[in-house]
Amino acid sequence: MNRRRFLGLAGAAAAAPMIVPSRVLGLGNWPSPNSRIVMGIAGWGMMGPGNTENFLKERDCQVVAACDLDKEALGRAVDKINGHYKNKDCKAYHDYREMMARPDIDAVMLAIPDHWHALAATEACRQKKDVYGEKPLARTIVEQRAIVDAVHNNHRVWQTGSWQRSTSNFHKAAEIVRSGFIGKVKRVEVGLPEGHVDFKHTKDNCTITEPPARLDYDMWVGPSEMIPYMECRVHMNWRWHYNFGGGQLLDWVGHHLDIAHWGLGFDKIGPMSVEGTGEFPPHDAVWNTATKYRVEMEYPHNVHITVAGGHPDIKSGCKWIGTNGWVWVDRGDKLECSNPKWQGAADISDSISHVHLYKSVNHQRNFLDCVKSRKETITPVDVAHHSAIPGHLGLISMLLGRKIRWDWQKEQIIDDADANRYLGREYRSPWKLV
């Protein structure tokens, strides 16, 4: 191309109008690029699609990247995101570290198996990303502590997917208890699910096979022990094997026990003693997590908490029992009180100081608002840590077959070296938790 031709084309281009979508310029109802939160998402299994859908609904959030170790799941994620924006801008990633290294990404959503939480979350914090992460906080207490430290040391905003705090019935129940309507709380009953659920309908595929070409199984196992591939214990069903998850106890403790702590004002403390019993399949079973369990715990201020799954005397949800009555709450907008008048916001007695708890009506929106304001979310990292610790301790007690005493300030099991070894786990090479 000669000089005259080049200048002619350049002049024509300069004279032609440029058509730019209004959302790029921040016109109309679209926020300006400078006020937009740019996100990447990791995990397209059980919680990933729903979380992402909620972020896509928020106009000041733009999802630009997706990561998954299953090519088919990754393809669905990218198609969903691009379909929403009607473009091809979402980039696919196999390695979460590459996605998190992008300087234009402000925050990440992590919906990955428990055994990956610590590595992915600490890397996100190291790369100065704010994090929306699923519960429980991590696979072990040591891993959870690493996440807590990474969040604080890097001044990150953290939101845990314990979304019940952003619903009205759980919020109201906790306020009733904190306001003193039921008197001094003596006992709390927390009912969780029992057994196993085949989320992927793969129970007929519980045989050892070669991993499918679409899945990087070696990296999917990651820091955990390498065990043979079975379709029925990877996507979604990984939670039923202790190599990857913690069964119903750890899957749900970050929901209903989290609410129990909220109502008690125990967000940053823990039990003093823990005694758990459970029924387990054989250790080498395809799914080996406890199918039935019960954990009895003594807390400060003479509060006894029972967490159970598969025990009819402990009703699903959370029930606080005090000297003047009780309150029970569960999913499905369920809320019952020994005095029905307590359920009405207008029936607050002047003789009782009404406690107004942190209010959120949308869990993802709360996260985005806090990313902008740099304030604490409704389920920050310390809350997630203390909500899950009793589940980990309950499992340790069940596995050891004895009661353990817990120093919640030092985060150590008292006078029991064998039990303290269960607080963490060895990583498979070359993975390391820094």
Summarize the entry for a quick read:
With 434 residues, the protein is of the alpha/beta class.
Description:
The chain is an alpha/beta fold. Helix content is 32%, strand content 18%. The protein contains 13 helices and 15 strands. The strands form two sheets. A nine-stranded mixed β-sheet has the order 13-12-11-7-10-9-8-14-15. A six-stranded parallel β-sheet has the order 3-2-1-4-5-6, with helices on both faces. Strand 14 (404-407) and strand 15 form a beta hairpin. The chain is globular and about 60 Å long. The N and C termini lie far apart (55 Å).
Cα separation of the termini? 55 Å
Largest sheet strand order = 13-12-11-7-10-9-8-14-15
H/E series: HHEHEHEHEHEHEHEHHEEEEEEHHEEH
Largest sheet: 9 strands, mixed
Approximately what portion of the residues adopt beta-strand conformation?
15-25%
| Assembly category | single chain
Give the SSE map.
Blueprint: H1 3-15, H2 22-25, E1 37-42, H3 48-56, E2 61-67, H4 71-85, E3 91-93, H5 96-100, E4 107-110, H6 117-126, E5 130-133, H7 141-153, E6 158-160, H8 168-178, E7 185-192, H9 217-221, H10 247-264, E8 273-279, E9 292-299, E10 303-309, E11 317-322, E12 325-330, E13 334-337, H11 363-373, H12 381-400, E14 404-407, E15 412-413, H13 417-420
Parallel strand pairs: 1-2, 1-4, 2-3, 4-5, 5-6, 7-10
Antiparallel strand pairs: 7-11, 8-9, 8-14, 9-10, 11-12, 12-13, 14-15
Helix pairs in contact: 6-7, 7-12, 8-10, 10-12
Keywords:
disordered N terminus; globular; 15 strands; single chain; alpha/beta; 6-stranded parallel beta sheet; Dihydrodipicolinate Reductase, domain 2; 9-stranded mixed beta sheet; 13 helices; 32% helix; 434 residues
